[in-house]
């Protein structure tokens, strides 16, 4: 009997924990959607159509290329400041895309590829800036 009671208690505890985790996840998703839609001024990201997502993905690809070129110009001594504003725009756009859900599988596949590409570039840019600040590399003059 005591063993059955202990099993029931563990099961009840596990269900409460799982329920809390689901609620926390929903709250995080809602908060992120509110933050993103408030920053960029678009509808809630979960209501984006496939065409809107495609358009935003094209904008993100173009911004990735621009930011990459601007970082190269900064490190080459052409630009005086790193591309902070453009990078913030790109970060907001990628956040909006990352919380959008649904759509055809092909669109989700393209989005995951774009997200991976962005993560690679972001890591590269961060590493370049760390190396520059640490004195491991120098800007061209």
Your description of this structure?
- This protein is mainly α and 141 residues long.
- The protein has one domain (2-134).
- The protein is 79% helix and 0% strand.
- It has four helices and no strands.
- The chain has helices at 2-40, 50-75, 84-99, 105-134.
- The longest helix is centred in the first third of the chain and has 39 residues, at 2-40.
- The radius of gyration is 22 Å and the shape is elongated.
Attribute tags:
141 residues, 0% strand, single chain, mainly alpha
Task: Summarize the SSE layout with pairings.
Blueprint: H1 2-40, H2 50-75, H3 84-99, H4 105-134
- The dominant shape is elongated
> Distance N terminus to C terminus?
80 Å
Uncertain spans: 40-45
Number of helices, counting only DSSP H or I runs of 4 residues or more: 4
SSE string: HHHH
Largest sheet: none
The total strand number stands at 0
Helix content: over 70%
| Mean pLDDT, all residues | 84
Beta-strand content estimate: under 5%
Label the structural class.
mainly alpha
The number of domains is 1
> Gyration radius, to the nearest Å?
22 Å
What's this model, at a glance?
The chain is mainly alpha-helical and 141 residues long. The chain has helices at 2-40, 50-75, 84-99, 105-134. It is elongated and about 80 Å long.
């Amino acid at each position: 009997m005591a063993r059955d009671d202990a099993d029931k208690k563990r099961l009840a505890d596990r269900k409460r924990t799982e329920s809390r985790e689901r609620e926390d996840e929903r709250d995080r998703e809602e908060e992120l959607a509110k933050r993103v839609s408030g920053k960029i001024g678009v509808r809630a990201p979960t209501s984006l159509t496939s065409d809107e997502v495609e358009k935003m993905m094209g904008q993100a690809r173009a911004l990735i290329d621009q930011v990459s070129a601007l970082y190269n110009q900064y490190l080459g001594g052409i630009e005086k400041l790193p591309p902070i504003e453009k990078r913030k725009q790109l970060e907001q756009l990628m956040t909006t895309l990352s919380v959008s859900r649904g759509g055809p599988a092909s669109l989700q596949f393209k989005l995951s590829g774009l997200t991976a590409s962005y993560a690679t570039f972001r890591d590269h840019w961060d590493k370049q800036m760390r190396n520059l600040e640490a004195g491991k590399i120098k800007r061209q003059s």
